[in-house]
Each structure stands twice: as structure tokens, then as C-alpha cells.
Automatic annotation (TrEMBL):
PROSITE patterns: D_ALA_DEHYDRATASE. Homooctamer. Pfam families: ALAD. This is Delta-aminolevulinic acid dehydratase. One of its GO terms (molecular function) is zinc ion binding. One of its GO terms (cellular component) is cytosol. 5-aminolevulinate 2 binds at residues 278, 317. The keyword Metal-binding applies. It catalyses: 2 5-aminolevulinate = porphobilinogen + 2 H2O + H(+). It comes from uncultured Nocardioidaceae bacterium.
Amino acid sequence: MAGTGGPVIRPRRLRRTPALRELVAETSLAPGHLVLPVFVREGAGAPVPIRSMPGVVQHTRDTLRKAAAEAAELGLGGIMLFAVPEHKDARGSGACDPEGILNVAIADAVAEVGAALPVMADLCLDEFTDHGHCGVLADDGTVDNDATLELYAEMARVQAAAGADVVGPSGMMDGQVAVIRDALDGAGHTEVAILAYSAKYASAFYGPFREAVASSLTGDRRTYQQDARNRREGVREALLDVAEGADLVMVKPALPYLDVLREVRDAVDVPVAAYNISGEYAMVEAAAANGWIDREAAILETLTSIRRAGADVVLTYWAAEAARLLGR
Ligand code: PBG
């Protein structure tokens, strides 16, 4: 260390012991930051494994209740419910049926955990439509934005009546947050929060999720989900959702869009969530299954990196496991 005149700067001093590293850690990761997405399948007699997401299942109503209770015990930040209905149709009628699988599962989860765990629900039609799109189709086959909004409004009212604490509109229709806020308030559900999937990109990494919800989509979602090349547009979408009344905004996927996440975090003053999606989960699981990476270390590094990029809340299929790892 040849002298340059001044003192030798030694950043390694603060890395010398685990305790020193803990003292100066810039980013924290705790169970309360994590939301567990869960799938519930109508008519299932036993949990059904999802081939492309090893370790994740489509729950029965009963095992979903157990997963919710466990999430509460672990101190997670919430659970996000997705449903796999037995029947689908062009308008996704099951989504707005109070007896539909998603809505009864919301009520089940709320009955199980009460106020101990925020219960969130995906607010989108894609699991319920036979064509697999996130909205209803116009005569020319395009996704009809404003006709879809009417269904989202009804879906929000039904989910709130079932007891959801938070609704998560994920369909990327223009104006969806404003319409949902209005519908909730009009029905007296002023306390129900909106977690808006604001910057949601058309991504190849959703593949395993589409197996998880038995999606019937054949084309793609590029007329409503965002183009991977656009960062500014992601920030614009988040600002629009805040202006429409979103309580939290989300960037999705997480890992390929950490730059968007950071910019959104800097641009808004509401909490920001990021969704560590199915393909991100599957990549790590596949590599670990081959013995190519250290699975547990990769999980914690992944979640930490999403927090470091600016996420207050991280949706991840590893939520329960990460909580256990953090508690060791
Ligand atoms: C749409 C929705 C999607 C996901 C959550 N909600 C995907 C899609 O656009 O097909 C993806 C989540 C994941 O990949 O883990 N309702």
C-alpha cells in the first residue's frame, strides 16, 4: 500500500466480523416484508403440485386455510389469493359470483386469520375467462378496456364483501384503479386498500404461473401489458395509479425490472411492492435441483436484492420458507 500522502482507506474494516457487517447493513429483510401468493383450486380433493413450480401447489379450500394460518404464525406481511375455477366462460362470470371459488376462499382465509394477516386477492379476469385474457373481448377480438372495467368494479365489490383487506388489480386496463376505488367507496368499502399492479410487463417469466392457474391463453398480452423496453413508461403508469387512488403500487416482474423498481420507488410516496414471479422462482429451483447453486443462499440474495432496489413489500412464493430461514 504505497503511500499517496493521506490515510489508506480500508473498507474491509467494516466487513471483518458478522457483527460488524450486521451493524452497517443497508438493507433489511424480514417476514413482515413478504407476501405469499397462493393458489386455490375449485373441487380439488387434495393439493395438486404445479410441475413447473416445484414446492408450490394448487390448494384445496381446506389446505388453503392451513397455509393462511401458517403465514400468520410466521408473521408474513400477507397472502395474495389466486383461484383456479372449474368452469370458465367468455365473460369470466366466476370472478363476480359471490359463491365463486376465489370469493369463498377469501372468506375462508379471513375466517381463519382475522386481522392477524392481511388477506389480498388478485383482481383480474384471466383465471376465469375461457379465452384466457385479462378482460372481455370486443366483437373484433380485441380486449375491450371499458367493458372490462365494469366487471372489475363488480369483482372489487364482491371481494370486499367476502372480507378482502386488499384488492390487487393486475389486468393493466386503463383507469382500473379509479373505477375500483369508486366502486369500493360507493359500496361502503372505504377501508379496503388497492395494491395496483402498476408497471406490469409482458414477460416470458410468467410461464409457470400460467400452468399454475391452468390458463387458456393462446396469444399474448402485449396490447395491455407493458413493453420490456420501456422504463419511463413504468414510472408513468405508477404515477397514474397513485393519482387514481392506489394505496400501494407494484412493479412486476421483479428481477428483470429492478431499474424500474428503483425509479418508481424514487418517484412516488406510497409503499412500493415488487412481484418475484413464477419464472424467477422456477429458475432458482431448477438450478438448485441440478446442484448448480446453493438454493437457500440464492433465495435470500434474490429477496434482498429486490428490497435493495426499493421494494417495501415483496410478493414471493418463498415467503414462508424465507421467514423460516430468517428466523434461524
Ligand atoms: C394476471 C397475473 C399474472 C401473474 C399474476 N397475475 C400473469 C399473467 O399476466 O399471465 C403472474 C405471476 C407469476 O408469474 O408468478 N392475473
